[in-house]
Design a protein that fits this description.
The complex is a heterodimer. Chain A is an all-beta fold. Chain A contains no helices and eleven strands. In chain B, strands 2, 4, 5, 6, 9, 10 and 11 form a seven-stranded mixed beta sheet that branches. In chain B, strands 1-3-8-7 form a four-stranded antiparallel beta sheet, with no helix packed on it. In chain B, a hairpin with a 2-residue loop joins β5 and β6. The chains are: A mainly beta, B mainly beta. Chains A and B meet through β5 and β10 of A and β4 and β5 of B.
C-alpha cells in the first residue's frame, strides 16, 4: 500500500517570500507526482506534475523531485495571499489503470 | 465542457436514512473516481470505474456503501443506512486515462448525517 506523507502545517509565510512544501512517498517505483491546490470549501485542482528527477518550473511554481530520497517538493516564489490554500501531493500506483493516492495536504497561509 | 457535475451540493439527513450522491463526468473521460474527504483522514479513494466497470472498490468502508455507473455519463454513490460518521465531503473525479493522468474534480457533496 503506497503512502504519501505531508506536513499538515499550517505553514505561514509573509507576502513575497518563498513557500516550500514537502512530500515523501513510500513506493520507490513511483514514476509521476502531482501537486493539487485546494481552496477552502472548493475542490482540488491540478497545478503541477513532474516525472523526472530535478526541477520543473511553471511561472512562480517549481516542483522538485528526488527519486533516490523519495521526496518531492513544491516551491512557490513571491508568495501572494491568493496562494493561501491547502496543497495536496498525489502519487499514482505503478500499475496502469489505478487511481491517485493523496497526502493529507499542507495548509499554506500567506500574510499581506 | 461544464466539467464534472455533482449533485446535490449539500445534503443533511438523519441517521438511518438512505443517501444517494450523483455524478456526471466530463464527456470522453474513461475513468471515474469517488473520493471522500475528512479532516482526520484526508482525501480517500472509495472506488473507481473504467469504462463504466468498477475496477477497485477496496476503499469502500462498509457494505452500507455501494456505487454504480450505468452508463458513461452518470454514476451514483449510495449509503444505506447512513450514520453520523459518514459525514464528509464526497468528491467525484474523472480523467481520460489511469492514475498517471490529470483527474478533474467535481465541486463535491457535503454530507451531514445527524
Amino acid at each position: 500500500q503506497k503512502e504519501v506523507e505531508q506536513n499538515s502545517g499550517p505553514l505561514s509565510v509573509p507576502e513575497g517570500a518563498i513557500a516550500s512544501l514537502n512530500c515523501t512517498y513510500s513506493d520507490r517505483g513511483s514514476q509521476s507526482f502531482f501537486w493539487y491546490r485546494q481552496y477552502s470549501g472548493k475542490s482540488p485542482e491540478l497545478i503541477m506534475f513532474i516525472y523526472s528527477n530535478g526541477d520543473k518550473e511553471d511561472g512562480r511554481f517549481t516542483a522538485q523531485l528526488n527519486k533516490a530520497s523519495q521526496y518531492v517538493s513544491l516551491l512557490i516564489r513571491d508568495s501572494q495571499p491568493s496562494d493561501s490554500a491547502t496543497y495536496l501531493c498525489a502519487v499514482p500506483p505503478d500499475r496502469a489503470g489505478t487511481a491517485l493516492i493523496f497526502g493529507k495536504g499542507t495548509t499554506l497561509s500567506v500574510s499581506s | 465542457d461544464a466539467g464534472v457535475i455533482q449533485s446535490p451540493r449539500h445534503e443533511v439527513t438523519e441517521m438511518g436514512q438512505e443517501v444517494t450522491l450523483r455524478c456526471k463526468p466530463i464527456s470522453g473521460h474513461d475513468y471515474l473516481f469517488w473520493y471522500r474527504q475528512t479532516m482526520m483522514r484526508g482525501l480517500e479513494l472509495l472506488i473507481y470505474f473504467n469504462n463504466n466497470v468498477p475496477i477497485d472498490d477496496s476503499g469502500m468502508p462498509e457494505d452500507r456503501f455501494s456505487a454504480k455507473m450505468p452508463n458513461a455519463s452518470f454514476s451514483t454513490l449510495k449509503i444505506q443506512p447512513s450514520e453520523p460518521r459518514d459525514s464528509a465531503v464526497y468528491f467525484c473525479a474523472s480523467s481520460r486515462g489511469p492514475g498517471y493522468t490529470e483527474a478533474f474534480f467535481g465541486q463535491g457533496t457535503r454530507l451531514t448525517v445527524v
